[in-house]
Amino acid sequence: MTAAAGAGAALAACGSSGPGTSSGTKAGSASYWFLTGQPGEGIRQAAAERFNKANPDTQIQFTAFENDAYKQKIKTAIGAGQAPTLIWGWGGGGLKSYVDAGQVEDLTPWFEQNAAIKDKLFPSSFGPATVNGKIYAMPCETVAPIILFYNKKVFNDVGVQPPKTWDDVMALVPKFNEKKIAPFSLAGKSRWTNMMWLEFMLDRIGGSQVFQNVFDGKKDAWSDPAVTEMLTKLLDLVKANGFNKGFSSVDAGANADQALLYTGKAAMMLHGAWTYGSMKNDGGDFVSKGNLGWIPFPTFAGGKGDPSDTVGNPGQYLSISSKATAEQKDIAKKYFTSGVLDEAETKAWINDGGSVPVVKGTEATLAASPDAEFLKFVYDTSVNAKVFAQSWDQALSPTAAEALLDNIAKLFQQQVTPAQWVANMNGVIGK
Predict the structure, then answer these.
(1) Which of 144, 322, 371, 406 is deepest in the core (most CB within 10 A)?
(2) What's the pLDDT score for residue 298?
(3) How much is the pLDDT for 249?
């Protein structure tokens, strides 16, 4: 499971087999595949059904697949030129591979003609939808930034304040260790959980362009001095016992990292916004009593990154198959106009999904939620981000992403030096 695969209940709660549901509409309509798992599956299905009811002559034929089955089936279908009209995905590296193969439509002219639709969505959500300066996907569904959570009770008991800078972080580590409390909870066995640290650190130290150079395939992009500084400072934290003992054998799938935070065995945890719901569900009265806190990732002295930048999952994405008929493409674009993130779907993601949709102007609905304070933080973080960087393992190609996760795990286990890490990662740029 990757960070992107865990974005919100819609992505984390997937069924055991697929296809799960099918609309059974007539041939000749636009086809649409999406993921099973509630509440996301129900929200997606209801949106398509509303569109079909309002447009009896232009139908969306939908089928739902379990997460892993979908990934395999969509890859095979696209490769065979038999993709559904609407291709649901995570953007980034996967979308770029579709673009390079000529399998998806360039939507740039359509967005230019429909500026109001583009304007209603978070600007940051368009990053993973954009390849070589052109837009190839419609951002949809929800946003899930990575957040630094903390246990307020632990901080009060120790008599310290949440960190604002990296120097603050390193100063807090011995204070928590002295009290036999892990400074940070980390489920390192999952690898992508480790990755979240480097994503934020590199952005804060070097600015967003450093990873953009990697994504763009620039030769030796990982040799940027900011990368070595990031790796060195991360190792400083590891060597200072900044994480829970045995972190490299803890699996995020069992939410053991979250349990360390809400039971007070760890003071802080860097994780996705989606963990809020599970901590609320599993942590007893931890959330309801107001003991869960959240803050932006700390800044670095002399860092080039914009403090408003964030990382994580800027949204999910719908592309249109270049192999679809003209009629099917028109139906898909009509769905973009009146079906995707309509008022009912937007409210459902908030009220049923416990998430923040990638739509501006939802403040009133968010404010009415029992989780209003947290949802406002997620909304403000997402809509105000100058850059919302996509999780690296989704932004890169599958080959480069696997090498990245492997080398990150080795770094946290002190099995590679910063120089070796840089050399290893430069070797898979563009692959």
Answers:
(1) 144
(2) 98
(3) 94
**How many domains is the chain partitioned into structurally?**
2
Domain assignment present for 367? no
**Which residue ranges in the chain fall short of pLDDT 70?**
1-28
Task: Clarify whether residues 26 and 175 are in a common domain.
Answer: no
According to the model, what pLDDT value does residue 18 have? 35
- pLDDT tens digits, one per residue of 91-106: 988 898 899 999 999 9
Half-sphere exposure of 92 (CA within 13 A, CB side): 27
The pair of three-digit structure tokens given for residue 38, joined into one six-digit string: 């509630």
Residue 192 belongs to some domain of the structure = yes
The one-letter amino acid code at 430 reads G
Q: For residues 390 and 396, give the distance between their C-alpha atoms in angstroms, rounded to a whole number.
A: 9
Reading the block at residue 170, the tokens are: 């390193």
Same domain as 225, residue 172: yes
**In this structure, what token pair is assigned to residue 410?**
């080795």
Q: 414 vs 11, 403, 407, CA distance in Å?
A: 32, 16, 10
Exposed/middle/buried for 234, CB within 10 Å: 0-12, 13-18, 19+? buried
Contact 117, 337 (CB under 8 A): yes
Q: What is the model's pLDDT at position 274?
A: 86
Pairing of strands 266-272, 182-185: parallel
Residue 25 belongs to domain spanning: 4-141+315-360
Report the C-alpha gap between 209 and 202 in whole angstroms. Answer: 10
Q: Under a CB-based contact definition with an 8 Å cutoff, are residues 141 and 42 in contact?
A: no
pLDDT at residue number 124: 85
pTM of the model: 0.81
CATH of the domain at 399: 3.40.190.10
